[in-house]
Design brief:
The chain is an alpha+beta fold and about 550 residues long. The longest helix is centred in the first third of the chain and has 15 residues, at about 180-195. The relative contact order is 0.12.
Length: about 550
């Protein structure tokens, strides 16, 4: 999703005319059909694709099935979920309010959220739009709090959760960190400022003026959307119906067609909604404090593919894989919306561009001219030698490596916190799934420490995690037992001992096992890295929960139990 350096390469007039000749167009569309052929069956979900140049639709087609139970195929009029592609429409809604003088992008968030507790950090609406706010990820925070009883929807619950936060992942404006909660908050700000829900505001101010008659923000799970495709996931047991967290809008919640996205693309060339200054601002990368540039504008990624400038965004959730990319200098756009979440939509949009812009690219396509290394076989005994817990002492990230059914499985507690298969390409090197980044295993050295090196496609070491085998005694664990409260999450956790380490018992949720990593440091699912804190006298004063997206959330000790 993150594109790289901006390079402008202009295509020739002759190439543009040649691409529009009917015989050539037919061969191009046949090649596009071949890209999607794998899923273009009556027993498979698939995609809708739309392609335009100079504001004219060149090709649109549906592949596979919109609903397997009813036998309904995907057509160009099928409405599919677009997940995070939503963000550019949330951004435009905020920009339209700014254009009308109802807010300023440099206003502090607390101007519109008066319950905002943090007075130390100046967080602005612009920071939310370009993902430089430093806010902890709101959806992760809600996952640590007491589960809702259904009386309050996620959009409503997000505001007080973020408003209570006093800590930040970083000083606003100093770093870029993609943040879904910030965009959900922007949706609530649209409602507070305009008096309309984001759904109603976007419909009247964006979708209808642009003729996007099949596009909606789905802020109600019971909302009926005509021609909506069902979503699907695939695992070892086959296909299953899947659905994103419906009703959540701002960061996601958009349902649309490929044709409607092409209508939206046209607004960047011939502005009807907003102004030239507004659409230019959306496509301008943010400049961080210190002078470096982020890859993100306002609701859009800005970068390049094979030497051509791109403006793009993807979206993924349960049952959703979507990508929409514009090549502004070539006036070329591709929208791919899929109802199977394992489809590589980035590769498909790049494949379409490879077909239509072949004579305009300044660089060859690495994804199609260099195949990944072949998979090799590594014995179970050899895999077992790499298993264990590994820690990055610089950021307290913890990686667990295990062997399951002859396969090496990783889990990054500090990151996504889901199991992923590592693909062996040599006895000691394993590729991350759908990636050119690999893990290189370095066996035990003289000090008894083994390590994994995270290596990029050019052989550079990005990170090192070293083995850790801390085994605390019962006496060492006993002082950690007790009750701890977080005012920022408005929740109390209980910590108890177990044979393998500790257990966190959050109210209304399943117990969370914690594995020892180092003195006063543990790791577990959901909570990431847990670091216990001591007062000057050495007594336990509390702990913090730490994940990449939400760092340093403090719990203070209440008492001692058990």
């Amino acid at each position: 999703m993150k594109s790289l350096i901006i390079t402008v390469v202009l295509g020739s007039t002759i190439s543009l005319l040649a691409a529009c000749r009917p015989p050539h167009t037919e061969s191009l569309t046949a090649r596009v059909d071949q890209l999607f052929a794998e899923w273009n069956r009556t027993d498979s979900p698939s995609c809708s694709v739309g392609i335009s140049r100079n504001g004219t639709v060149m090709y649109e087609h549906g592949y596979g099935m919109a609903n397997l139970e009813l036998g309904v195929p995907i057509t160009p009029t099928s409405v599919l979920g677009a997940a995070s592609i939503s963000k550019q429409f949330t951004a435009m809604s905020i920009l339209l309010l700014a254009e009308r003088g109802q807010l300023s992008l440099d206003d502090e968030v607390r101007t519109y959220i008066p319950e905002w507790a943090d007075r130390e950090h100046r967080v602005t609406i612009r920071h939310l739009l370009n993902h430089t706010s430093g806010l902890r990820e709101g959806f992760g925070l809600l996952g640590w709090a007491i589960p809702g009883d259904g009386s309050v929807d996620t959009n409503t619950a997000m505001v007080p959760m973020l408003a209570r936060q006093r800590g930040r992942n970083f000083v606003p404006g100093t770093e870029f960190q993609y943040n879904n909660g910030g965009y959900n908050l922007l949706g609530s700000i649209v409602k507070r400022v305009s008096g309309q829900s984001l759904r109603a505001f976007a419909d009247t101010k964006i979708f209808k003026p642009l003729g996007m008659t099949s596009t909606y923000f789905r802020d109600d799970a019971a909302m009926i959307i005509p021609n909506r495709a069902a979503g699907y996931s695939r695992d070892r047991d086959g296909l299953h119906q899947a659905s994103e967290a419906v009703g959540v809008v701002g960061n996601a919640g958009l349902y649309t067609t490929a044709r409607d996205l092409l209508r939206w693309d046209q607004n960047f060339a011939e502005v009807r909604v907003g102004t030239q200054a507004v659409v230019a601002a959306m496509q301008t990368p943010a400049v961080l404090i210190g002078g470096s540039t982020s890859p993100y504008g306002l609701g859009l990624w800005v970068g390049q593919y094979r030497g051509l400038r791109t403006v793009e965004h993807g979206g993924g959730d349960r049952g959703i894989a979507a990508y929409f990319v514009r090549y502004p200098d070539q006036r070329f756009a591709v929208a791919v919306l899929c109802n199977l979440d394992t489809i590589n939509v980035i590769g498909l949009t790049q494949g379409v561009a490879d077909i239509y812009l072949a004579d305009m690219f300044a660089a060859p396509s690495p994804s199609r001219e260099s195949a990944p290394p072949p998979r090799v076989t590594v014995s179970v005994d050899a895999l077992a030698l790499t298993a264990g817990l590994y820690r990055n002492e610089a950021n307290d990230g913890v990686l667990r490596i295990s062997v399951r059914d002859g396969t090496l499985i990783g889990r990054n507690f500090y990151g996504e916190d889901t199991d992923f298969e590592l693909i062996p390409v040599s006895p000691n090197r394993f590729l991350f799934p759908a990636s050119t980044v690999s893990l290189q295993f370095v066996p035990e050295t003289a000090d008894g420490v083994s390590a994994w090196h995270v290596i990029d496609s050019e052989g550079r070491t990005l990170e090192v995690v070293q083995s850790t085998a801390f085994v605390p005694s019962t006496e060492e664990l006993r002082p950690l037992v007790g009750e701890y409260r977080s005012p920022e999450l408005d929740v109390t956790y209980r910590v108890v001992t177990a044979d393998f380490g500790l257990i966190i018992r959050p109210p209304g949720r399943a117990d969370i096992p914690l594995q020892p990593v180092a003195k006063d440091t543990f790791a577990g699912p959901v909570v990431g890295t847990v670091k216990f804190l001591r007062d000057p006298g050495g007594a336990i004063a509390g702990f913090t929960l730490n994940r990449y997206s939400a760092r340093g959330v403090r719990f203070d000790r209440l008492n001692r139990v058990g």
